[in-house]
Amino acid sequence: xxxxxxxxxxxxxxxxxxxxxxxxxxxxxxxxxxxxxxxxxxxxxxxxxxxxxxxxxxxxxxxxxxxxxxxxxxxxxxxxxxxxxxxxxxxxxxxxxxxxxxxxxxxxxxxxxxxxxxxxxxxxxxxxxxxxxxxxxxxxxxxxxxxxxxxxxxxxxxxxxxxxxxxxxxxxxxxxxxxxxxxxxxxxxxxxxxxxxxxxxxxxxxxxxxxxxxxxxxxxxxxxxxxxxxxxxxxxxxxxxxxxxxxxxxxxxxxxxxxxxxxxxxxxxxxxx
Amino acid sequence: xxxxxxxxxxxxxxxxxxxxxxxxxxxxxxxxxxxxxxxxxxxxxxxxxxxxxxxxxxxxxxxxxxxxxxxxxxxxxxxxxxxxxxxxxxxxxxxxxxxxxxxxxxxxxxxxxxxxxxxxxxxxxxxxxxxxxxxxxxxxxxxxxxxxxxxx
Lengths: 273, 152
What we know:
CATH class of the largest domain in chain A: Mainly Alpha
CATH superfamily of the domain at 38-143 in chain B: Cytochrome c-like domain
Largest interface: A-B, 23 and 25 residues
Number of strands of chain B: 2
Number of helices of chain B: 5
Largest sheet of chain A: 3 strands, mixed
Order of helices and strands of chain B: HEEHHHH
Strand content of chain B: 5-15%
Strand order of the largest sheet of chain B: 1-2
Order of helices and strands of chain A: HHEEHHEEHHHHEEEEHHE
Number of domains of chain A: 2
Oligomer: heterodimer
CATH architecture of the largest domain in chain A: Orthogonal Bundle
Distance between the termini of chain B: 50 Å
Radius of gyration of chain B: 16 Å
Largest sheet of chain B: 2 strands, antiparallel
CATH superfamily of the largest domain in chain A: Cytochrome c-like domain
Structural class of chain A: mainly alpha
Structural class of chain B: alpha+beta
Radius of gyration of chain A: 21 Å
CATH class of the domain at 38-143 in chain B: Mainly Alpha
Helix content of chain A: 25-40%
């Protein structure tokens, strides 16, 4: 009798635990200390990324997939003098699961910090002997598409960049950039994204400024675009001279942003206003 | 006694802000966290001040403040509501707040309207303050009219 009661109570708790776990799984994947820009977006924008009714990614409504599909096609396309495709060396794209969450990452061969785009360029140039056409430049359609396609393999997984060891000096540079006031308005990134997330800057709800949704389809751009393009916009808004997309300065800064996002689920390809 | 030696004699309570190499060069005296004297000697124009406050390329105050300007959509709320600021602040307090707010709160996000930025300023804004001293006087005249009795 007593035994049965205990078992029933235990079964009850287990049932509740399962329901709680199931509820926790409803909605876009979350994690980490800070919140993704998704949670600071308007419901119409969110709906282009996540279908709450189906409780799944809204890929049919996400215009970023026009670029992702081009990336997927390139994965299997032979390109360059070596006559190779990405697939010939890397196999199924699913072999890239988890890879992008560790970028930007220190590369021992050249002693530099590599954004995912730098790594893709390295494979194109050095392993495939392919030409970097306009489409494969940082903001080119194929580079955006391939970056997002590789990141898609890690969608829902927590960002997980290393900031210690060889990565430490790059992280420190990025952190200094983040906290330095600049431009005619003399503001740092932290002035907005650390001090005022949740406040309105006119019609914009300020978020934590995380990189986990990039490349993203931005409604204002009516186009898919890179994180470095977004950062350049934040620089120009405070009337500061931007750096180039793919510059060391922005890649170091990307590492710092990613470290703030450690634990937050990767969402690329995202949709933002 | 020249202006500068006079200031030297008053060192301590008084600080001189001068921004050379500035097209809108502003020079002002800070006394106890305020700037008591008009920057131009010319009375501010509240109607012009309201326009400057709204103008996105000038004051752009609505980016961060709710103000009694219902004809403009989307007021920010990074800073306090300014609907009653004419009751709570003096012109001297407003003047330092606009000229260089970091003198009273080094960590503030609010831009200094009379002090040019120094780090990677976009070329076309280099050495330039956001507002002219007269525009600041106009904005102050406008703020002084905000007594909490206007619709927001």
